[in-house]
Amino acid sequence: MKGLKTDLDLQQYSFINQMCYERALHWYAKYFPYLVLIHTLVFMLCSNFWFKFPGSSSKIEHFISILGKCFDSPWTTRALSEVSGEDSEEKDNRKNNMSRSNTTQSGPEGSLVTSQSLKSIPEKFVVDKSTAGALDKKEGEQAKALFEKVKKFRLHVEEGDILYAMYVRQMVLKVIKFLIIVAYNSALVSKVQFTVDCDVDIQDMTGYKNFSCNHTMAHLFSKLSFCYLCFVSIYGLTCLYTLYWLFYRSLREYSFEYVRQETGIDDIPDVKNDFAFMLHMIDQYDPLYSKRFAVFLSEVSENKLKQLNLNNEWTPDKLRQKLQTNAHNRLELPLIMLSGLPDTVFEITELQSLKLEIIKNVMIPATIAQLDNLQELSLHQCSVKIHSAALSFLKENLKVLSVKFDDMRELPPWMYGLRNLEELYLVGSLSHDISRNVTLESLRDLKSLKILSIKSNVSKIPQAVVDVSSHLQKMCIHNDGTKLVMLNNLKKMTNLTELELVHCDLERIPHAVFSLLSLQELDLKENNLKSIEEIVSFQHLRKLTVLKLWHNSIAYIPEHIKKLTSLERLSFSHNKIEVLPSHLFLCNKIRYLDLSYNDIRFIPPEIGVLQSLQYFSITCNKVESLPDELYFCKKLKTLKIGKNSLSVLSPKIGNLQFLSYLDVKGNHFEILPPELGDCRALKRAGLVVEDALFETLPSDVREQMKTE
C-alpha cells in the first residue's frame, strides 16, 4: 500500500467510500447488473409479446389446439388409406394433373415456395387399407366438426398477416438490441477496474482531497461482462439467422405440393398469410404435423368423410322403407336434402327409379351399374358429377331423365350423350337468349328421344327441339306466362302425336298445329284463347282423338266442331261458354266430355247421340234440368252434375248400369230417386251428396251402396 497514513475515523472512511462511489466510479461498473436485468427483460418481452397479445395469442392457441386434434384424429389415417384404394382412372388423372402442375411451376409465373423440410421426408405416406379400421359414428362426427373448425380458422387467419408482421418486427427489434449491446459493452467493459482514483472536495472534513479507492466487485463484474457478451452474441447470431430465414423465404405462402404428391390427395389448397406462416413454423418442429393437418384442408377428404357418415346413417334396410311406386308405375327411391348420395343406394338392386332432390355435389359412382333395373333418374336442384363407367351404364340403360334446375349450369352436360334416353323432362328458368344456346343443340345426339317436356319461360321453340323432331312423338312446353311466338318450327315435327302448349299466352290456335298430320292429342291449357273459329282446320288431322282447350276464355263453341268426328276426349272446362251447340254431339265417338266451370244453362237433348260417352261433367254451371236423353248414354261411368241449379233427378238414372261415380252435391234436390239402386256399380264412396239427402234413399238402397 502506498500513500499517507491518515488514521481517519470509521465514519469518515464510510463517507469517503460513498462519495467515491457516487462521484468517481464509472456508470457502467456501477449499473452493470441492472443493465443486464433490463436487457434480459427486453429480450423476454420481444420474444413473448406475440404469445400474450390477444390478436395473435388467440390465433396461436387455436391453431395448436386444432393441430393436435387433427394429428390424433383417426380420420387422418382412414383418409390416406382411402386414397391408396382409389381406382386406376383417378390415379391416372392425378398423374396428369401433377405433370401439368410441374409444367406450370417451370413457367415464368413460378409457384409457391415449397418447404424444404418437406423435401427431407421422401417416404410415401400411404396406409394399408386393412389397417385403417372403420370409424364409428362418434369419431365420424368429431372429424366432421374438425373440418368445420379448420374451414372457419382458415377463413379467419388467411385474411391478415398480423402474426408474421409481429414476429418480424420483434425479431428486428432483438437484432437491433443485440447490436447496441455488443457495441457499447465492448467499448465500456474496460471501464470496470479494481482501483479507482477519487478526487473529491472533502478536505475540510478529512484533511485530504485525493483518494485511491478499490471496487471490490470489479473483478467479478469484469468476468461477468465478458460472459454476458458471449451469451448475447450467440443469441444475436441466432436472431440474425432467424431474420435471414424470414426474408430469404416467402413465409406468407405455403405450398402443399410435396404433400399432394406423397399422400395422393390432389386438391389440398396452398395457403397464405398467417396460416402459411404458422405451418412454416410447425415444419421447423415436425413436418408430419403439416401433412396430417393437410388432410382436413381437402374437399375430397371431407366428401369421403361425409360419404362415410352418410352410409352409416342410411343403411339398405332404411332406404328400402322409403321405396314407393311413382306415376310411371316404377319402384322409386326419393332422397331429399341429404348431404350426398349414400353408396348403400346401389345395394337396392330392385330399384327402377332414383329421385334426388336438393342434394349438392352428387357424385354418381361406377357402382350404379349394380342397379340392373334402373330406368329412370330425377335430379331436382342437384349439381351432379358422374364417373365415366357410370355414364356408360346410363347411356345403355336410362330411359327417363328429369332435371329441375334454378341455373342453366345445373344442367348435367353428360345428359346430351344418353343415346337410349326416351323421355327428357326439363324444369327451370331459361332466359330468351339461353333458349337458343348451343348447349341445347346437342340434343340431336339423343337418337331415341320420344318425349320432351320443357317447363320454363321460352319465347320460342328452341332449335334443339327441331333437331330431334324426326323421332319426337310428344312435346310439352309449360311456360310461366311468357308469350310463345314463332311456332313455325312445329311444322317440322311430322311424327309428333302429342302436343302440350300450356300457359304460353296464345290468343289463337297456332296454324302450325294443323300441319301435324300424326297428331293425336292437343292440350292448350291456361292460354288466352277467346275464339276458336279455326277449329275447322282440325278436320285434316284424322288421328286427333284428344282436344283440351280448358282454362281459357272461350265464349262459344263454333258449329265447325262437328267435323272433328275422330274426337274421343274433349275438355272445355274453366271457360266462359254459355250455349252448347247441338252440332257438338255429332262427334259421336266422344267418350270423355268435360264442360265444368262454365256458364251453361241448357243441355241439348242431342247428347243422347253419344252412345260411347263414359265421362260427362257439367260441374259448377247454371243448368236447371237434364234431358232424359242423357240417360240413353248407357256406357256412362262418371257423371258430375254438382254445383248447378237442378231440383229433380230423373228416375231414368237407373238405366246407367255402369255408373260408378255420381256427383250431385250443391244442387236443390229434396229427394233422390230410389232407382239409384239399379246402378249396381255405384257405391257410397262413389256418390258425392249431402248426408241428409243420402238419407232420403230407401234403407235397402243405402245398405246396398254401403256394401263393398
Automatic annotation (TrEMBL):
Entry GO terms, CC: endoplasmic reticulum membrane; plasma membrane
Keyword Endoplasmic reticulum attributed: yes
Membrane topology of the entry: Multi-pass membrane protein
Signal peptide positions (record): none
UniProt cross-references to SUPFAM superfamilies, sorted A to Z: L domain-like
GO process annotations (BP): monoatomic ion transmembrane transport
Domain LRRC8 pannexin-like TM region: start-end pairs: 1-243
Residue segments, region Disordered: 82-115
Cell compartment(s), UniProt: Cell membrane; Endoplasmic reticulum membrane
Subunit structure: Heterohexamer; oligomerizes with other LRRC8 proteins (LRRC8A, LRRC8B, LRRC8D and/or LRRC8E) to form a heterohexamer. Homoheptamer; inactive, likely because it is not targeted to the plasma membrane in the absence of LRRC8A. In vivo, the subunit composition may depend primarily on expression levels, and heterooligomeric channels containing various proportions of the different LRRC8 proteins may coexist.
Name of the protein in question: Volume-regulated anion channel subunit LRRC8C
Taxonomic lineage: Eukaryota, Metazoa, Chordata, Craniata, Vertebrata
